[in-house]
Amino acid sequence: AGVAVPSEGFLKGLEAIARKNRVLLAVDEVQTGFCRTGKTFAFQHEGIDPDIIIMGKALGGGVLPVSAVAANENILGVFKPGTHGSTFGGNPLACAVATAAIDVLVDEKLADRAAELGTYFMDGLRAIHSPKIKEVRGKGLLIGVVLHESAGKARIYTTALKEKGLLCKETHSWIIRFAPPLIITKEEIDAALEKIKEVLA
């Protein structure tokens, strides 16, 4: 939630510990999955091979709530018919939406777009040089602006940005999180940066 990016090698180390101790490695890609961080899944930045992938949010393309779990048969095969139920599992309309959403993400190369525009957005945020900003961090189009505590709580700024027509989320009191649509343009990022600069001046 605070857009804390693991340091390089952290996930590889975690994977090694899991393998050594025969522990399943599950990755939660509900928020970071489906191109948000500049790869199809965030774990791919480190090239790990998780046992279980938990997915949601973007899988529904903003149309329907859809979530999914992916794993090999030796893991999911422990469920036998009748041992687990789901009231809405396998809903045909939700599955059709998920398939269409994935097609758009792949066909329009939105992971590459998120990587490119995320760098552009973060560079623009760093160029603001506001004394209120402690750090800009993120991957792709999932970005966190960490404020100095002396700047006050992030809610002050997210409210001011909302009044200027820019929606973002405060998290952990001191962080402003930006997660714009993957189809955002550079021109829209520039317009957002102007508003952010005004609010954080």
Provide an overview of this structure.
By secondary structure, the chain is an alpha+beta fold. It has two domains: 10-107, Type I PLP-dependent aspartate aminotransferase-like (Major domain) (Aspartate Aminotransferase, domain 2), CATH 3.40.640; 111-200, Aspartate Aminotransferase, domain 1 (Alpha-Beta Complex), CATH 3.90.1150. The protein contains six helices and seven strands. Strands 4-5-7-6 form a four-stranded antiparallel beta sheet, covered by helices on one side. It has a three-stranded mixed beta sheet with strand order 1-2-3. A hairpin with a 2-residue loop joins strand 4 and strand 5 (142-147). Helix 4 packs parallel to helix 6. The longest helix is centred in the middle third of the chain and has 17 residues, at 110-126. The chain is globular and about 60 Å long. The model has no long low-confidence stretch (mean pLDDT 96).
Please outline what is shown here.
By secondary structure, this protein is of the alpha+beta class.
List the helices and strands and how they pair.
Blueprint (H helix, E strand, L loop, with lengths): L9 H11 L5 E3 L23 E4 L12 E4 L1 H4 L15 H16 L2 H17 L6 E7 L2 E6 L6 H10 L5 E3 L3 E4 L7 H15 L1
Parallel strand pairs: 1-2
Antiparallel strand pairs: 2-3, 4-5, 5-7, 6-7
Helix pairs in contact: 4-6
| CA radius of gyration | 19 Å
CATH superfamily of the largest domain: Type I PLP-dependent aspartate aminotransferase-like (Major domain)
What string gives the helices and strands in order? Answer: HEEEHHHEEHEEH
Number of helices: 6
Please state the overall shape, judged from the principal axes of the Cα atoms: globular
User: In what order do the strands lie side by side in the largest sheet?
Assistant: 4-5-7-6
CATH topology of the largest domain, which one? Aspartate Aminotransferase, domain 2
Characterize the biggest β-sheet.
4 strands, antiparallel
* Structure summary, number of beta strands: 7
